[in-house]
Amino acid sequence: QVQLQESGPGLVKPSETLSLTCTVSGGSVSSGSYYWSWIRQPPGKGLEWIGYIYYSGSTNYNPSLKSRVTISVDTSKNQFSLTLSSVTAADTAVYHCARASYGHTGILHYWGQGTLVTVSS
Amino acid sequence: DIQMTQSPSSLSASVGDRVTITCRASQSISTYLNWYQQKPGKAPNLLIYAASSLESGVPSRFSGSGSGTDFTLAISSLQPEDSATYFCQQNYNTPYTFGQGTNLEIK
After folding, report:
1. Please, which residues bridge with residue A20 across strands?
2. Distance between CA atoms of residues A14 and B18, nearest Å
3. A108 at B interface, C-beta within 8 A
């Protein structure tokens, strides 16, 4: 059974860069069968899709965040990562990583539990 | 972006009841509609994909229907463990978007 676990700082200052990592166990980020996604959920609000990456490095980002987002993959560590630059309080959220299958990039079969990131000085 | 609107935003029902949650898309999305269950502090769990396909391991009391713009998640014979928030999501095109959620309380 694949498991995903998010990690990273829980507190980020405004205007700085948020960096999170998703460690995958029970599966390989190098597999051509899957896409690896990030989704966030501000406190008390709905879910927002951030983007996804394929093992080859191909990405697709939400246009609302595209200018600030980078998703990358590290096959040697079986991880993929999210960076979000120039953060503001509006970026405070629980950030989830998730896995989708090739050809069905929007069906998120497996999710991490999520990690809360607070943007505050 | 495609807007997803769920109703109701919350509901309360008793064990054994049948409940339905609806989701409406701002444009036709064929059957590119998924349903997730989320319990507090836990990862969302995929219940239904492609509008009506039951994810492996999900109890058969969960079912989905609909196409185009209107979709329904039904839970027959409600169980105590079904207390959760339910989200719909379109994967017709990116950016993928979610409904605002329906909070289901078991009386």
Report:
1. A82
2. 46
3. yes
